[in-house]
Amino acid sequence: MADAHAPRPRYRSIVADSARWDGFAFRPGDVVISTPSKCGTTWTQMLCALLIFDGPEFPAPLEQMSPWIDMCNRPIAEVMAVLAAQTHRRVIKTHTPLDGIPLHPAVTYLVVGRDPRDVAISRQRHVANVDWEQFLALRAAAIGNADLAEFPEDPAPSEDPAERFRIFVTDDAPGGGGPPTLASMLQHLDTGWQRRGDPNVFLFHYADLKADLASELLRLAGVLGIPCSPDRARKLAAEASLARMRERGGDIAPSASRGIWKDASAFFRSGGTREWCERVSTADHAAYEARVAALVRPDLAVWVHGGRLASGVDPQL
Questions:
Q1: Global pTM?
Q2: Which of 110, 166, 277, 279 lies 20 to 30 Å from 84 when distance is taken between CA atoms?
């Protein structure tokens, strides 16, 4: 495991800045969830909280209790103070790859993957639900917006879904909080894959959560060292269903209390699996597969697209 104070790359976008991790005081037992955007981050936060508190009653709304340190919509001192005041086991969210955050031997790191083709579709709906005027107002109050000119201006999204997918495949923009691209997603997941043999780094997958949520929650309990019976896992998993999380969207959707969503419940949308089949031509999919093969090793690619249960590739073995 790398030293917690080793130099690390900085991931920075209009939305997030990994430098906000500087000086964070870890505690033994902390849980850091590191995912590309739209890969099941909030789902995993919910599962961790259900296990830690042994039920759906939390001391604060999930979106406040388990903050995204990197997100630039709150002063970092305020976020650090919230975490410092917590007396329970802490769960912290980040969209920064593992090479961009401090790595501490007494902290558990969860890296969550998802089929990039599904992420490409999910992200389009996600962006449309953001109240960007409100986000920029919060950012101005938190860190100021004088630096916005340093970021390249995002082109208007194409009206053609096929063209949007092609841009997702070919774009080389770095990850860490900005719009995910195929390259940034795979690079993020590769930082977890390279450390999958470390005793405190564990990989989970959206497809596995969807296929057998209770069993994956039981697996997570083992990773976190929290006693949990199969019967209890089934009961807790019911609280993490899509329908139940949508009902609690105002408490669970990230930054919901800060008004950055047009509709907080819409953050937890139905579907999102294999919708790309209806939009991607044979030629575009061939280009996608060639790009994947050029970016990552075959075993990682198989796991990314199928998860552990469907692919038979277990990252921890």
A1: 0.91
A2: 110
**Secondary structure of residue 28 in the 3-state scheme:** coil
Dihedral angle at the C-alpha atoms of 253, 257, 260, 263, nearest 10 degrees? 60
The CATH class, in words, for 18-311 is alpha beta
* Catalytic residue flag (residue 95): yes
Q: Which of 95, 104, 205, 305 is catalytic?
A: 95
**Beta bridge mates, 108:** 31
Task: Dump pLDDT digits (tens) for 51-70.
Answer: 999 999 999 999 889 999 99
Q: Say if residues 316 and 299 touch (Cβ distance below 8 Å).
A: no
Domain residue extents for the chain: 18-311
Structure tokens at 297: 């090793």
Tell me: the pLDDT tens digits for 73-115?
Answer: 999 999 999 999 999 999 999 999 999 999 999 999 999 999 9
**Is the separation of the CB atoms in 170 and 276 below 8 Å?**
no
Whose tokens are 């599962």? That residue is: 47
Distances (CA, A) of 77 to 23, 30, 82, 85, 145: 11, 19, 9, 12, 18
